[in-house]
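Query structure, 259 tokens:
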């Protein structure tokens, strides 16, 4: 039996599927409550929509980094690593609508927060889980020969269709693109959305890594597939604006969708 839970935080839907020993009992419900508590705590620190969040106050110069919760330094360091590896296309400091540079670590926080929240689920004995944070997923299967979670990759031109299916036993899948939220990802080197690319899906060991690299690859535009192929332990799929696709490291198990 698979049990499902749904809630909403950080401006996105959060859903959980559990199968195995703990699905609807007190342990399962307690783990789900812990997941949501961790995500709400992350939102209080990192939301750019909350003027009282630590990240908003840091961006306005009201706090120093040393005065922020310690996880802020951790997230900003992940962002700096991504900036260096992407040649500046990914940056938590990006041009705002008025041309001024703003601090926005959203491209790091979602995957990082969900990966941290999943700790409570990993503690459930003999229980598989698939946690989705706004469509980016971290999955775990207790037995290596057990049934994999089958993750669909949406066609960015028609979200009713899938372009591929990724079987995941233990790992994460993240997608970046403009289909759901418009052109919210920009190449930080230019301040403009990338061209010629529709979406990037990345498969990695952790959702922190998958989410950051999906965003960085998408921001790189025409360089996405080549850059993603240089990233150790990453696999994925690039969908270009003309509908063509490039698979990066087919060992990920990514399969074309039927139909």
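Result returned for the query:
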């Amino acid at each position: 039996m698979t049990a499902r839970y749904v809630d909403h935080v950080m401006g996105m839907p959060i859903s959980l599927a559990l199968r195995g020993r703990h699905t609807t009992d007190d342990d399962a419900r307690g783990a789900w409550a812990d997941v949501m508590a961790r995500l709400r705590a992350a939102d209080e620190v990192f939301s750019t929509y909350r003027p009282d969040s630590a990240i908003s106050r840091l961006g306005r110069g009201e706090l120093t980094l040393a005065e922020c919760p310690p996880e802020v330094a951790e997230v900003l360091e992940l962002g700096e690593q991504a900036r260096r590896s992407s040649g500046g296309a990914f940056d938590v400091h990006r041009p705002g609508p008025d041309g001024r540079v703003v601090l926005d670590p959203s491209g790091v926080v979602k995957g990082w927060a969900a990966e941290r929240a999943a700790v409570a689920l990993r503690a459930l004995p003999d229980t598989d889980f698939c946690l989705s944070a706004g469509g980016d997923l971290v999955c775990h299967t207790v037995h290596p020969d057990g049934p994999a979670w089958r993750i669909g990759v949406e066609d960015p031109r028609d979200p009713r269709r899938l372009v591929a299916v990724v079987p995941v036993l233990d790992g994460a899948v993240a997608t970046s693109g403009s289909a759901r939220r418009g052109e919210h990802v920009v190449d930080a080197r230019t301040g403009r959305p990338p061209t010629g690319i529709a979406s990037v899906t990345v498969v990695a060991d952790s959702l922190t890594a998958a989410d950051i690299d999906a965003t960085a690859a998408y921001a790189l535009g025409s360089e996405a597939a080549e850059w993603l192929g240089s990233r150790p332990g990453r696999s994925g799929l690039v969908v270009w604006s003309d509908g063509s696709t490039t698979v990066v490291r087919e060992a990920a198990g990514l399969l074309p969708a039927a139909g």
